[in-house]
Write a structure and sequence with these properties.
The complex is a heterodimer. By secondary structure, chain A is α/β, with parallel strands linked by helices. Chain A is about 35% helix and about 20% strand. Chain A has 8 helices and 9 strands. Chain A has helices at about 35-45, 75-85, 90-105, 110-115, 120-135, 150-170, 180-185, 215-230, and strands at about 1-10, 10-15, 25-30, 50-55, 60-65, 140-145, 170-175, 190-195, 200-205. In chain A, the strands form 2 sheets. A 6-stranded mixed β-sheet of chain A has the order 5-6-7-3-8-9, sandwiched between helices. In chain A, strand 8 (about 190-195) and strand 9 form a beta hairpin. In chain A, helix 2 (about 75-85) crosses helix 3 (about 90-105) and helix 3 packs across helix 5. Chain A is globular. Chain B is mainly α. Chain B is built from 12 helices and no strands. Chain B has helices at about 5-20, 20-40, 50-60, 65-95, 100-115, 115-130, 130-155, 160-170, 175-210, 215-225, 230-260, 260-265. Chain B is globular. The N and C termini of chain B lie close together (about 10 Å). The chains are: A alpha/beta, B mainly alpha. Chains A and B meet through strand 5 and helix 2 of A and helix 8, helix 9 and helix 12 of B.
Chain lengths: ~240, ~270
């Protein structure tokens, strides 16, 4: 992304954003509420057209996991996972295998695949959303605060699932979150968005690969960032007036 | 799902659908009981008993001429219904996407709905004479607003996040419309179609009666002039049966197929 800028109703929400994601790299984008993180990922995924700047995409297949699972209520888990395959041009006879593989990566049981979203718990629905994204065998995945609505234990299991899936499927990802622990656990690199969306305030490279860091290391990194690093000073600010 | 399992699943749902008919039969039995009570209170001239009416209906069905009249009305109603449903859905979907069209259409709908069907019949009779066109056009005018509003609301109130999801996976406008939006709009459209179908039958008979255009409407007019209450009621019963056959043979199965997932939300879920 080069010099991305965007405005709603004449009010600038993003300005001069430059960010690159390398092949196979997971970049976590953190920033306080109202800094324009969600708008930025939607621009990056092509859901919103930026008013300024340029996006160069050098991947073949993209996928996205949203804050809500966004499953089609009228379709079973299997049909939901199959949904992007038609567009991705996967042949009919190969689809079933793709679905089964993606479901296995997301740790879904075969019995779950016949169920409708309404029959699944929140965590299971998000697993289906993850499987749907993995089914297209993406080389780039956009994560828009995907685990915010989940409880702590479930969130950790989902994070591990993403780390394992990224390692096995070798995709690059842009992961939006306001949870610094999550960013440290999942990413290779953390980019912090400016409080007012005026550019990327700074970038921190994390030691080791995701999945190799133990809990103590993650926690101490978080403490160091929050207490000693001025870059992270404002990431927990909340401005309800901008985002009710 | 494997073909065998899919076939079993379909057979199961068909049986389930037929089994749910008991509740409908119970309701009809209640109606018949109330009817019988009315007959006993007011006498056979005002309200013939249900059994006699059914006998009259069976007798009518035995005559080729009566069957022809019923078929004519059913054909006209269905033709009007298909016209109204197509026009209503097409216009409604357009209005759902374009708020400006919706704003323009709202007052027109109020006008259309405010004019009683009987007034339209008089006008269409003068425009088209006493033909099937009169009936079809009257049905079109009377049934379009219901379908239009449902389709427009279905699109306007769709879950936009699902559209974004589809877009994120590369679906364009046509793909989102076909696989996401249309599917969501179907939910309010089907009850509206059932309502429009009922309206079609009612308006068809009314138009036939006034325009003397044959069909059940004319037969009812004849029964009225002869003060033949059993005959009139028999025609009503036959019309209702025809309506039920069309609704439960066509509209409801289509709705059931599309809304299968809703049963999963019920406490007893989908039997697998």
């Amino acid at each position: 992304m080069q010099r991305i800028g965007h405005a709603y109703f004449g009010q600038s929400v993003l300005d001069r954003i430059d960010l690159d994601v390398e092949r196979g790299e997971i970049v976590a984008l953190v920033g306080p509420s109202g800094s324009g993180k969600s708008t930025l990922i939607k621009i990056a995924a092509g859901l919103i057209e930026a008013r300024e700047g340029r996006i160069t995409r050098s991947y073949a297949h993209q996928a996205m996991i949203f804050q809500q699972p966004n499953l089609m209520p009228w379709a079973t888990a299997r049909e939901n996972i199959a949904f992007p395959l038609r567009r991705a041009g996967v042949k009919w006879r190969d689809r079933s295998q793709r679905i089964d593989e993606a479901a296995a990566l997301a740790e879904l049981e075969p019995a779950d695949l016949a169920k409708y979203p309404v029959e699944l718990s929140g965590g299971m629905r998000q697993r289906v959303a993850i499987a749907r994204a993995l089914a297209v065998q993406p080389d780039f995945v956009f994560f828009d605060e995907p685990f915010t609505a989940l409880d702590v234990a479930l969130k950790r299991r989902m994070q591990d699932l993403v780390i394992d899936a990224a390692r096995e499927a070798h995709f690059a990802a842009l992961f939006i979150t306001h949870d610094l622990m999550e960013a440290i656990r999942i990413a290779h690199r953390i980019a912090v968005l400016d409080v007012r969306g005026k550019g990327v305030a700074g970038i921190r490279y994390l030691p080791d690969a995701p999945g190799k860091r133990d809990e103590n290391e993650i926690f101490s990194l978080r403490q160091t960032y929050l207490q000693e690093d001025p870059l992270f000073r404002h990431i927990h600010d909340v401005d309800e007036r901008r985002h009710p | 799902m494997k073909p065998g399992a899919a076939l079993l699943d379909r057979a199961g749902r068909l049986l389930d659908f037929l089994w749910s008919g008991w509740a409908g039969l119970a309701a009809l039995a209640l109606l018949a009981a109330a009817w019988q009570a009315g007959h006993e209170a007011w006498g056979a001239f005002i309200l013939p008993d249900p059994l006699e009416t059914v006998k009259a209906a069976i007798r009518l069905m035995g005559e080729a001429e009566s069957r022809g009249l019923l078929m004519l009305t059913a054909q006209r109603s269905l033709a009007g219904f298909v016209l109204a449903a197509s026009a209503g859905v097409a216009l409604g979907l357009t209005a759902g996407y374009a708020p400006a069209v919706m704003r323009l259409a709202r007052p027109l709908l109020t006008v259309l709905l405010g004019v009683p069907p009987i007034a339209w019949i008089v006008l269409t009779m003068m425009w088209f004479g006493t033909t099937g066109t009169t009936v079809a056009v009257t049905i079109l005018i009377a049934a379009v607003p219901v379908v239009f509003v449902a389709a427009a609301e279905g699109i306007a109130k769709r879950d936009r996040e699902l559209g974004q999801m589809a877009e994120a996976f590369g679906y364009g406008l046509a793909g989102r419309f076909l696989f996401i939006d249309l599917r969501q709009a179907a939910q309010p459209i089907f009850p509206a179609l059932a309502l429009a179908l009922g309206t079609s039958f009612k308006v068809a008979i009314m138009a036939e009666m006034l325009a003397n255009a044959g069909g059940v409407g004319s037969a009812l007019a004849r029964a009225r002039s002869l003060l033949d209450v059993p005959q009139a009621l028999a025609w009503v019963v036959l019309t209702v049966i025809a309506l039920i056959i069309v609704e439960y043979g066509l509209v409801r199965p289509m709705e059931g197929e599309l809304e299968r997932w809703r049963r999963a939300a019920q406490p007893w879920g989908v039997k697998k």
